[in-house]
Amino acid sequence: MQDIWEFKDPQYPQYPTEKNLDLLKFIIEASSNEGGLVLDCFAGSGTTLVAAQSLNRNWIGVDKSEPAIRVVQKRLNNLPNSLFSRVGYEFLRQE
Ligand SMILES: C[S@@+](CC[C@H](N)C(=O)[O-])C[C@H]1O[C@@H](n2cnc3c(N)ncnc32)[C@H](O)[C@@H]1O
Questions:
Q1: Within 10 A of 73 (CB to CB), how many other CB atoms are there?
Q2: How many Cα neighbours within 13 Å face the side chain of 81?
Q3: How remote is the CA of residue 66 from the centroid of ligand 1, in Å?
Q4: Which of 3-7, 27-31, 86-90 shows the highest mean pLDDT?
Q5: What 8-state DSSP symbol labels residue 41?
Q6: Contact, 68 vs 45, CB < 8 A?
Q7: Of 48, 62, 71, 81, which is the most buried if we count CB atoms within 10 A?
Q8: Residue 6 has pLDDT above 90, yes or no
Q9: Residues 28-87: tens digit of each pLDDT
């Protein structure tokens, strides 16, 4: 059994690997614990990071695209803070 999923989300016909928020939450819940660390090294629009944050996981996101990073920051900044889920992150950039 391999760990490559070939599932294609019909919502995103242009990107072969992109998945919707509900499916990513399902995957993260099934494969990690609260307080664990989720890494998305192709963060794109940040859906995996949003899912991880909303499930109280720590996360690291990487992307080579500045526009993608701006979208991710906007989405994360728009998430509500709660007692159990504070959105706090450090943005690192290499020139
Ligand atoms: C389809 S998106 C990924 C979707 C994302 N995983 C999610 O949860 O929504 C693909 C992203 O990978 C990024 N990317 C492609 N090659 C890369 C590389 N070598 N290093 C970092 N990011 C890369 C692109 O800039 C693009 O934003």
A1: 14
A2: 6
A3: 11
A4: 27-31
A5: S
A6: yes
A7: 48
A8: no
A9: 999 999 999 999 999 999 999 999 999 999 999 999 999 999 999 999 988 887 666 667
Output the six-digit token pair for 42: 């192709």
CA angle 57, 26, 79 (to 5 degrees): 50
Helix, strand, coil shares, percent, the chain, to 5: 35, 10, 60
- How far does residue 83's CA lie from ligand 1's centre (Å)? 31
Distance of CA 20 to the CA centre of its chain: 10
The residues lining ligand 1, judged by C-beta closer than 6 Å to any ligand atom, are 15, 17-18, 40, 42-45, 47-48, 62-65, 68
Residue 16 CA to ligand 1 centre (angstroms): 11
What is the pLDDT at residue 37?
A: 97
CA 95 to chain CA mean position, Å:
23
Is the pLDDT assigned to residue 89 strictly greater than 90?
A: no
